[in-house]
Structures are given as structure tokens and as C-alpha cells.
């Protein structure tokens, strides 16, 4: 069974930093795109950043210059370094991955979510 296990998150003051990580556990063949989404109370889930298996990245305008997404293919892990955090970054953050479980079978997987709270 494939699972995405997130860690990191927590509470921080405005201007602070947090780091999230998400590891893919289980037997898989390969991983394509990995991404971080977030959902604030009363708002739709939005893409924060994604990274392709060739390490190309995309960022939401609201986080450009402050957040950095990276991945370690050897560890099946995606990271999100968040700097200069703002109260509006408060949300539940979810990692996702498009995974080839076998050579012919692929699926989209989502982690359980981790809370990030930015408040003074």
C-alpha cells in the first residue's frame, strides 16, 4: 500500500520559517510530479508549488521568493522550505504525488495534511 507521510509544520510568528517534508512509503516503480497544496478555513484548496521529475518547479504567485520546493528521488521525498511566513500562509498543507506503482499502473496520491499556523 502506498502512503504519503508528511512531517514538519506547526506554529510560528510572522517572518519566521518552517520546513515540511513528505515521504512516499510502499513499493513503487517511480514518481512523476510532486506538489504541495494548502487549504485555509473557508477557502478552496490551492496549489502552492510543484516539482517535476526533471526538477522543474512552479510556484503560486503568493509564495514566490519565499518558499522553495525540492525533492530527493533517492529518498522518495519532497520538501517545502517556507521563509518569511505571513499570517495568510496559515492553512493545512498537503503533499501530493503522481506515482507509477508498477510499469503500467499510475495513481494520484495525497498525504494526510499538516497544519501550519502563522500568528503573533
The residue ranges in which pLDDT falls below 50 over 5 or more consecutive positions are: none
Query: Largest beta sheet, briefly?
Result: 7 strands, mixed
Assembly of the depicted chains:
single chain
Order of helices and strands: EEEEEEEEEEE
According to DSSP, the number of beta strands is 11
N- and C-termini, Cα separation: 40 Å
Large-scale geometry: elongated
Provide a count of the helices: 0
How confident is the prediction overall: mean pLDDT? 96
Our estimate of the beta-strand percent is over 45%
For the structure shown, list the relevant keywords.
four-stranded antiparallel β-sheet; seven-stranded mixed β-sheet; 120 residues; 11 strands; mainly beta
3D structure, described in words:
With 120 residues, the chain is mostly beta strands. It has strands at 3-8, 10-12, 18-25, 30-39, 46-51, 57-59, 67-72, 77-82, 91-100, 106-110, 114-118. It is built from no helices and 11 strands. The strands form 2 sheets. Strands 2, 4, 5, 6, 9, 10 and 11 form a 7-stranded mixed sheet that branches.
Question: Summary?
Answer:
By secondary structure, the chain is mainly β. Helices cover 0% and strands 57% of the residues. It is elongated.
Q: Helix and strand layout, with pairings?
A:
Layout: E1 3-8, E2 10-12, E3 18-25, E4 30-39, E5 46-51, E6 57-59, E7 67-72, E8 77-82, E9 91-100, E10 106-110, E11 114-118
Parallel strand pairs: 2-11
Antiparallel strand pairs: 1-3, 3-8, 4-5, 4-9, 5-6, 7-8, 9-10, 9-11
Amino acid at each position: 500500500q502506498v502512503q504519503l507521510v508528511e512531517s514538519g509544520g506547526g506554529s510560528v510568528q510572522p517572518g519566521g520559517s518552517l520546513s515540511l517534508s513528505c515521504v512516499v512509503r510502499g513499493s513503487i516503480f517511480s514518481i512523476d510530479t510532486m506538489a504541495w497544496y494548502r487549504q485555509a478555513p473557508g477557502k478552496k484548496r490551492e496549489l502552492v508549488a510543484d516539482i517535476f521529475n526533471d526538477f522543474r518547479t512552479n510556484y503560486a504567485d503568493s509564495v514566490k521568493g519565499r518558499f522553495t520546493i525540492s525533492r530527493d528521488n533517492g529518498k522518495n521525498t519532497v520538501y517545502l522550505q517556507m521563509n518569511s511566513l505571513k499570517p495568510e500562509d496559515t492553512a493545512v498543507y498537503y503533499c501530493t504525488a503522481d506515482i507509477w506503482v508498477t510499469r503500467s499502473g499510475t495513481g494520484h496520491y495525497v498525504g494526510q495534511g499538516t497544519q501550519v499556523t502563522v500568528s503573533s
